[in-house]
Amino acid sequence: MSTNKAGAEAAFTPDPAKISQAALDYIKAGPKKLYIGGAWKAAQSGETFEVFDPATGEVMAHAALGKAADIDDAVKAARKAFQDPSWARISPHQRSRYLLTIADIIERNVEELATIQAIDIGMVLPQSRQLTASMCDVFRYFAGFATKILGSTYPSDGSALTYSLREPLGVVGAIIPWNSPTFASAWKIAPALACGNTVVLKPAEQAPLLPLRLAELLEAADLPPGVLNIVSGLGADAGDALAKHPGVNKINFTGSTGVGKGILAASTGNLKKVTLELGGKSPNIIFPDADLEKTIPAAVMGFTSGAGQVCVAGTRVFVHEDVYDEVAAAIAKAAQAIKVGNPLDPTADIGPIISKKQLDRVSDYIKSGQEEGAALRTGGEAHEGPGYYVEPTVFENVTDEMRIVREEIFGPVAALIRFKDENDAVFRANDTEFGLAAAVWTKDISRAHTVARALEAGTVWVNTIFELDVIAPYGGYKMSGIGRELGAESIEANTQVKTVVVRF
Ligand code: ADP
Q1: Which residue out of 111, 136, 311, 485 is catalytically annotated?
Q2: Residues 246, 351 share a domain
Q3: Rounded mean pLDDT of 152-169?
Q4: Whose Cα sits closest to atom 24 in ligand 1?
Q5: Once rounded to an integer, what is the mean pLDDT over residues 184-201?
Q6: What's residue 6's pLDDT?
Q7: Which residue's CA lies nearest to atom 14 of ligand 1?
Q8: 277 is annotated as an active-site residue
Q9: What range does the domain containing 293 cover?
């Protein structure tokens, strides 16, 4: 039995002394309510839905099942707040202070928030801690922007003044996925508020706990009621209602490409602005001169981190034929050494898959790879009960047409692909409908820059992977998205420009 036998550690019992009691208490406390207009409310239907622990498959909490009526309530509260002088007329310095206060609150509660996220999505605690702490940087970065959102003046004759104002859009609807509730919330809430918008956020039904607890903690920031609203519910119901709502000025969505297309279609009713962060099938290209000591662990982390449930996962690993045998053996060995286990187990490297549905999807892909003739180099085992675990899985002898090479799996599954030269690697890396991210490993500086330019991806990493920083824009080429988040692009995406012509 390999050390990473999927699910072998499912029976793990966390050491209570090392786990945030506040997080456990929050999860156990009664049904979570909706946060609308600064108040906590049950869903209008009175219904709730079950929240599952992916490490055990058991129901661990209930959350209010928000539907169209609740979304409508939240959008109205957000609109009222948007127009209220307590938000609309405050100075940019005050908006900045709100964001700085939010960052301080998150910082004081990192352990609790990180633990809630770790349990809710099955992410190992150290990684969850790191992502939770990174939310503080996001709020602080955009706090700085609140006072630097500039218009322009334009040349005119002597009796006129023409200038532009960069103004908020209004109500921003944020729809986020289950794989990253911390940073998906921060990436959407922080720039929207910095620009003076108000927000209605719908968490993923698989993982609603972090955004709901965050809103509770952020009450201490004293934002005017209705500036931030959280409505948990199902995508096809609450999510769809938000995407269609005529009172919403923008939807900022992160999730699958299929749902993203639906959001775009739903936005046409009132032509709301749309930013979409969608799926990926990112190439990770290893040239023969790469520093393999760094490259191998990074490549394995690239498709196993978060149990592969990461939109930028490097799931197509292109390896130059000169080093293919060596690299394939090293990747297989490193993948076998990954410990799959309970997210609270400090010895676990990766946790479970989010749900039974997702586990079945990943298993189907593994089966399809085998049926289509790919060779399983390592892994391949999916295990259910208790919890949903998949071993890091590496395929070889794949062709460019196989489903495991073309489609986003969202599990710890990679395809190793042998290539001949730079052109071959670039051509095949770009032979995908996605274009979210790509990584290149080489010591040759010319090749690094040439390949970085040639790759069709919103982010290209050279001799590194997964480095995302709020200071630089993030988003997808091709079917990986529309628009950009983070960086100054986020400010543009959360504002609109008004030209004022004054004749005197
Ligand atoms: P993932 O596969 O990462 O879960 P999804 O695209 O299924 O991505 O879900 C991302 C978010 O979109 C979740 O909050 C989900 O509830 C929401 N969602 C799903 N279907 C719809 C829909 N038809 N309209 C609006 N939002 C939706």
Answers
A1: 311
A2: no
A3: 98
A4: 240
A5: 98
A6: 55
A7: 204
A8: yes
A9: 283-472
Q: Which of 120, 248, 259, 355 to mutate to test the pocket of ligand 1 (most atoms within 8 A of CB)?
A: 259
Whether residue 197 sits in one domain with residue 63: yes
Q: Is 136 a catalytic residue?
A: no
* Domain-ending residue, one of 278, 303, 322: 278
**Token couple for 66:** 């928000």
Q: Based on the domain organization, do 119 and 176 belong to the same domain? A: yes
Residues 257 and 319 in one domain: no
In this structure, is residue 268 part of a structural domain?
yes
| In the block, residue with structure tokens 């599954």 | 413
Q: Is the CB of 236 under 6 A from ligand 1?
A: yes
| 194: its two tokens | 């910095």
Rounded to the nearest whole angstrom, what is the distance from the C-alpha of residue 378 to the centroid of ligand 1?
A: 32
- Is residue 480 in some structural domain? no
Measured in angstroms, how far is the CA atom of residue 231 from the centroid of ligand 1?
14
Number of domains present in the structure of the chain: 2
Predicted confidence at residue 2, as pLDDT, reads 38
What is the number of the ligand 1 atom nearest to the C-alpha of 311?
3
Ligand 1: does its nearest atom lie under 6 Å from the Cβ of 243?
yes
> Is residue 157 assigned to a domain?
yes
Per-residue pLDDT tens over the stretch 349-383: 999 999 999 999 999 999 999 999 999 999 999 88
- Alpha carbon distance 476, 65 (integer Å): 31
* Average pLDDT of the segment spanning 475-493: 98
Residue 253's DSSP bridge partners are: 175, 276
300-314 b/e with 16+ CB inside 10 Å = b? bbbbbbbbbbbbbbb
Same domain, yes or no: 48 and 81: yes
Pair (273, 304) in one structural domain: no
Whether 401 has a pLDDT exceeding 50, the answer reads yes
- Is residue 231 lining ligand 1, measured as CB closer than 6 Å? no
Kindly list the distances between the CA atom of residue 445 and the CA atoms of 109, 220, 322, in Å, as whole numbers in the listed order.
43, 50, 19
Residue-wise pLDDT for 14-33, tens only, equals 787 889 999 999 999 999 99
CB of 408 closer than 6 A to ligand 1? no
Average predicted confidence (pLDDT) for the chain = 96
267-317 per-position pLDDT tens digit: 999 999 999 999 999 999 999 999 999 999 999 999 999 999 999 999 999
CATH number where 422 lies? 3.40.309.10
Ordered alpha helix ranges (H), 203-256: 209-218, 240-244
Contact 109, 101 (CB under 8 A): no
Task: Find the CATH number of the domain harbouring 252.
Answer: 3.40.605.10
